Hints:
Belongs to the arginine deiminase family. This protein is α/β, with parallel strands linked by helices.
Amino acid sequence: MRYPLNVTSEIGELKTVLLKRPGRELENLTPDYLETLLFDDIPFLPAIQKEHDYFATSLRNQGVEVVYLDTLLAESILNDEIRLSLIDEFLSESKVGESSSLEVIREFLTSLPKDQLVNKMMEGMQKNELPHKSKRHLHEFIENQDPFYLFPMPNLYFTRDPAAVIGNGVSLNRMNRTARGRESLFMKYIMQYHPRFSPHDIPLWFDRGGAYSIEGGDELVLSSEVVAIGISARSTAQAIENLAQKLFAKNENYQKVMAVEIPKTRAFMHLDTVFTMVDRDKFTVHPAILGPGGEMNIFILERGEDEDLKISRRANIVDTLKEVLNLNEVTLIPCGGGDDIAAAREQWNDGSNTLAVSPGVVITYDRNYVSNELLRSHGVEVIEVLSSELARGRGGPRCMSMPLYREDL
Ligand SMILES: NC(=O)NCCC[C@H](N)C(=O)O
């Protein structure tokens, strides 16, 4: 059986990718919960599904195998023991505290066939879904209380963030925001129990149980030797150091982790919202992350003496990329062509967030016409996908995809 994971670059020919089709979890978004649930507007479900299907078809047209999160999770529930342990971990992480409601919800979830169980966990559970007679707590009778027992998981279609394949292993991420905390639990069960993965001894470069957060939008596999990781609003310096230590200890190919500090703002939540790799020597960048002379805070982590890491500082992204990737030239392609307004507008709608399907061939949102034309003028082949509703969740094609297998360069 072929080993199921291989990602040694951002641009090697994409063979298998994990997606999540937006579902009824988006119908549980209301204006009061948009900020908590990390959305800027409520997408129209049939339209966002149509756009997502278009994205999946564009990938298949490039010869990519598309697998879906909910299908893999349902296929991982192989017996009652796995079902019960998934339900218990999920409920505990959902913070369903009141004991009697907890028992009723647990029984209800346990009674569902596996595909419905998976959907219910993902779409959330409103309080009014439980039979009236099972209400035992005062707050359950009060109409204007929090309407959910189980909060919906509308960010699931951003499969990039809860886990990332690096080389032959996985970073199973501890999410920074409560709204996304449970997402990596699903990936844990898939890696542990799905027949596609469970027969293999898959190394974990990061485990979700720790105190420090890291998210896949910050994890960029630049080569078979170098990983770039954003120090961002979502990923902490401590988590990056932990990951580097495990990666260096267990995978002799990896030599360097390049930690790149970016501003901690909503628009730039992850490194991949402002910087992606499109070809061996070409990268998109949002100009606003560069200082006046192009400077940045970059740190190179390498194996040091004994268990320690050697950490050294760099200030220029182009020079650092040339150094770590052994390149003579590196081209940065500015989002929005460098025009202040176009750059801000297109970055907000994920103009720097490209998904490479092979070197120099990328999928982007159609709305970012300035950035797309600029990519083409640099010799990059651009495959545009629909983006009116998908963009409302603040993520682009890279955010919406978790590569499981890419050919080596
Ligand atoms: N890699 C990414 O930048 N993912 C986009 C995540 C968007 C989601 N609404 C979030 O705020 O986490």
